[in-house]
Structure formats: C-alpha cells, structure tokens
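testing teh design pipeline on a random one, pls ignore if ur not involved
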C-alpha cells in the first residue's frame, strides 16, 4: 500500500504543534500541541480526531523538543498511528525564514539545514526553533523524507520595486536587508481558496488577502502570484498586530535610544511584544477589546480605530498596486471571527466597489463565504486559513514527485 499520511510539525522556541493528515481525502487523523517545553509545567494536549475520541492532556516536565516529539509519537501510537507506520509518507516542517534562496518547498538534507542556519541572523527567534524540530524528527525517522515549507516562499515573486527598501543597495545586499514577507503559506492557501469560492482559476483573479491573527499581514496577489505584502525584513512591519506596532517612522527608534535612553533590546521588546493593540489598550484579544468598547472604554475604542485605520490604508494601497481587484479575503483569528473589523475596514469604500452586507457579515461559520452584497463590484470574503493542510499538501506533492 502506498503511504498517504503526512505529519506536519510547527516547532516554536518552547512549543511543538502537530497534525497528522491522510492525503487521500485531506482528513485530519490527529492534532495536538506541546507547550512550555523545557519548563516544569509542560503540557501535551493530543486530540485523536480519526477515532473521534476525547482530547488527552498530560502535564509534567518535558525537557526538550526531542522528548516532546517522543511523547507525541507515543500518543500517536496509542491511536494506532505511530510514526514507525509504513503509511507515513513524509514529515512537513513549517520554517519561518527561507530568505531569497528557498522559493519552493524543499526536501531537507544537510545542505538545506546549513542554509536555514545561515538565515538565523534575519530570523533569530524562529529559525533556530524550526531547526530543532527538523533535527529531532530526522533523528527519529532518518529514512523518511522531510520537507521544509517556508513562510517566505510565496512572497519571493514580489518585484524588486516592492521588495527593496529605499536604502543603498550595497549595504542592503551585504546584510541581506529586503522585504521578505511572512504568513506566505496562509496567503497562498487563502488566495487560491478565494478564487475557488468565486468559481474561477487562481490565474484569473486579483485578491487582497488580509491575514489578521495575533500576527497580521496583508498581501496583494495578482493571478496567483504575490506582488506585494505588508511584512518586511521581519514580521514587525505593516499592520497593527496583537503586540507588534507594525509601520512606524524609523526615527522613532533613534528617538527612543537618544532621548528616551532605551537600549536596542528594550526597543526591540517594546515594538515586538508591548505594542500594537496590547500596547495601546492593555489587551491583544479582539474579543476582549470589543467587549470593552461595548462598555464604553475609550482606550479600547481608540485601539480599534487605529487598527482599522491602518488596515484600510493597506486595502487602498493594494487596490492601487493591483489596479483591478476581484476579492478582498479576510482570514485568521480576527479576520474569520470579528465581523465589526470587516465592516469597519471596508466602510466608506463603496467608491472602490467594496461593501459588506450586514446580515451576511454577521453569520458565523467555518466555510469560505462571501459577505458582500450581490451587487458589489468586488467580493468581500471570509476564507478560513489552513496552514497545516497547505504544508501537508505541498509536502505530499513534493514527495510524490520525487518517489
Ligand atoms: P490567530 O493568531 O489566527 O490564532 O488569531 C488569534 C486572535 O484571533 C486572538 O488574539 C483574537 O484577537 C482573535 N479572535 C479569536 N477568536 C475571536 C472571536 N470570536 N472574535 C474576535 N476575535 C477573535
């Protein structure tokens, strides 16, 4: 029997998320998460989706990623889905930064690992964690194809005019400074799913994708290819996010250093971890912010307005970049669930052919759906993202090609 299962691993600095999929029908057999790896209070939560059984949780110290993956393997074995099974075709790894080098999913070998390592200076938080997951999985199943799927890959089609910052190119090239963009797996999946929702081929549609989760980014996708995106050298640029500032005048950083007396590390932490919605009002969860607004909280209302103002600017900017737009697609935690954000983001844009139908916009669900009125020139859509399925699909396609 041909192997049809793919294990998707998303390895963070202290966490390991996983899903096991059967690629015959893209069904999920199991999913789970190991949190707080390296601490005394680690937790493994495993959901055996194939059997429909209850989620199992185990608390207790898990020393490192190696121990975490072994614990996951044990849970999978209990469901008859062990990693030693001949049905397992490959392991797909989410890798955040692939630089300019990795434009496609890539079968992992020593040279690929070395290149991901070389990119650590531009992704100091993410690539080391991703590499730990890769090394651990390779040690456990050295015989199995392992594939790296890069967050940056979808954006490598951006033209130089969008990818370059306006600084001396010699300095930029020496330090590999350019706009790489992130969340690419989600932007790729959602732009294709939006075309499918419209009943058209991806090559025939222009889509603005708004990935609004705790991290948030927008992209302009022309005929299935990314032509601009809001994140840059790092995931700090662009939209207002849960805890990240997004765009600001770079001189703010000089000012904080020279006048505010802050160190570079302090400024880094301020802009990445203590800004955005959280910095503005003390909450980064849109549900909580909406609840506070309903109670008349002014700081929460201003945070919401700043968030939406930036979003609207990017919709306008990418409209101009694309020239014609067929759809604006909202995705991720906020984009899929927060109807008020969708409504506010397109309010007043009727001149651009954009509007939401309040009744359609209020409907909740996990299927892709159109929330604009039938008469609107541009479809406004809610398209749930599925990064794990996209990683599994790309991994399986590549392994299928190579065997
Ligand atoms: P993600 O990073 O895609 O998992 O998105 C996480 C974020 O989605 C949370 O921080 C919330 O701000 C937001 N979110 C999740 N569920 C809801 C909801 N029902 N309404 C509004 N926002 C939500």
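output:
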């Amino acid at each position: 029997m041909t192997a049809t299962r793919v294990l998707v691993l998303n390895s963070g600095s202290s966490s390991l998320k996983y899903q096991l999929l059967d690629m015959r029908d893209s069904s999920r057999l199991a999913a789970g998460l190991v949190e707080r790896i390296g601490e005394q209070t680690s937790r493994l939560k495993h959901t055996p989706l194939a059997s429909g059984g209850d989620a199992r949780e185990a608390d207790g110290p898990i020393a490192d990623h190696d121990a975490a993956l072994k614990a996951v393997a044990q849970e999978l074995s209990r469901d008859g889905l062990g990693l030693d099974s001949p049905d397992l075709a490959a392991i797909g790894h989410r890798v955040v930064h692939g630089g300019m080098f990795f434009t496609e999913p890539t079968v992992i070998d020593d040279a690929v690992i070395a290149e991901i390592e070389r990119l650590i200076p531009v992704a100091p938080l993410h690539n080391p964690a991703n590499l730990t997951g890769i090394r651990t999985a390779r040690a456990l199943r050295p015989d199995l194809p392992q594939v790296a799927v890069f967050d940056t890959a979808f954006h490598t089609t951006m033209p130089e005019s969008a990818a370059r910052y306006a600084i001396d190119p010699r300095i930029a090239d020496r330090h590999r400074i350019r706009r790489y963009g992130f969340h690419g797996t989600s932007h790729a999946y959602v732009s294709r799913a939006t075309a499918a929702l419209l009943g058209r081929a991806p090559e025939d549609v222009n889509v603005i994708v708004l990935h609004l989760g705790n991290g948030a980014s927008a992209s302009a996708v022309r005929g299935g290819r990314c032509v601009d995106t809001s994140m840059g050298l790092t995931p700090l640029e662009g939209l207002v996010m849960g805890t990240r500032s997004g765009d600001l005048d770079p001189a703010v950083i000089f000012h904080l250093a020279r006048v505010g007396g802050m160190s570079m590390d302090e400024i880094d932490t301020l802009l990445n971890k203590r800004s955005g919605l959280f910095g503005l009002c003390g909450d980064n969860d849109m549900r909580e912010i909406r609840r506070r607004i309903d109670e008349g909280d002014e700081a929460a209302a201003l945070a919401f307005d700043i968030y939406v103002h930036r979003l609207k600017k990017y919709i306008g900017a990418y409209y101009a970049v694309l020239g014609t737009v067929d759809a604006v697609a909202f995705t991720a935690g906020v984009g899929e669930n927060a109807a008020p954000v969708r409504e506010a983001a397109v309010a007043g844009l009727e001149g651009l052919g954009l509007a939401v139908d309040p009744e359609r916009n209020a409907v909740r669900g996990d299927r892709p759906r159109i929330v604009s009125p039938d008469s609107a020139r541009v479809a406004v859509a809610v398209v749930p993202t599925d990064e794990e399925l996209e990683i599994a699909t790309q991994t399986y396609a590549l392994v299928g090609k190579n065997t």
